[in-house]
Amino acid sequence: MNKRARNRLIGVTAIVLLAVVAIFASIGSRGGTAYYKSVKEIAEDQGLVGERVKVGGAVVAGSWDKKANPMTFSIRDEKDTGGTGAVVKVVYSGAVPSTFGDGVTAIVTGELDKSGTIQAGEMITKCPSKYESATGALPIADLVGKGESMVGKPTKATGFVKAGTVVAPGGDVRFVVTADKTGGTEVKVFYEGALPAGMVDGSQVVISGELDSDGRFIATGVAMEQGQK
Description:
CATH 2.40.50.140, 2 domains, five-stranded mixed β-barrel, 229 residues, alpha/beta, five-stranded mixed barrel, 3 helices, 18% helix
């Protein structure tokens, strides 16, 4: 091989290698580390469009529909208690955590599109710690025993989370509460909010709300019994 042919081969090889490196760099950037940003930064920085981002915020009450496929919801800064700050829409294609709900902190990872929406494939939730005394709360057996007299009447009750019943919101039942850890009388609980941190099978909980005509407890609040701190 003469010198000219050898130089030409070296040049072509270099171009091919550069192209391969560029391709792998592009692939790596798409699935690589995401930029962690605040809700405000996501809403205001157009330079993030097309980038893989990670952002955490409180789920805006009433902004989601679990039955939609993919699921959509909105988040705002956790410190924005007045609800006057920026809001970011999320389209989520993964499995919905059972702890998801209104007000829960959702940390999502995905690509920010031109409309300012995060197309997310990953989500984890952070549940708030919430404890409440069971003093004055009706045991589940007593609640059920009072029958129709409790329908539509605001009340507070206490019982234990039945194993294997906690699911993501959006259905008719969020979890089931029993009279004691081993079972007994039970009540189905409907709740769209954030479940308290540490709530697992067998946990004693205090639920606030009212019974409906079908015997289901429509909860407005769920807390861990404070003796479990």
